[in-house]
Amino acid sequence: MANQIGDFFKSYPHDQAVKGISEHIKKFWDPRMLKQIYAIIQQPDHGLRPNSLEALQILAKSDPHAHTDLEASG
Predict the structure, then answer these.
(1) How many whole angstroms separate alpha carbon 73 and alpha carbon 23?
(2) CB 10 within 8 A of CB 38
């Protein structure tokens, strides 16, 4: 689903796309979905496209409930 959101923003400049993806996910995804995706982004085979991954990493770093170790993954 994160990649589908990213596809919507693929014609946008990079920074606007990442911001748009991040804002959409933050606004519409419930905490359970976020918890699951934060675990997924730490896996080497996460399957996310670069803009979607970057947006989720930004969200995870700013979410006090993320409980992720993103420092090691980038």
Answers:
(1) 22
(2) no
pTM of the model: 0.84
- What span, in angstroms and rounded, lies between the C-alpha atoms of 67 and 31? 12
Question: What pLDDT digit, counting tens, does each position of 13-57 carry?
Answer: 999 999 999 999 999 999 999 999 999 999 999 999 999 999 999
SS (H, E, C) 3-60: HHHHHHCCCCCHHHHHHHHHHHHHHHCCHHHHHHHHHHCCCCCCCCCHHHHHHHHHHH
> Length of the chain, please?
74
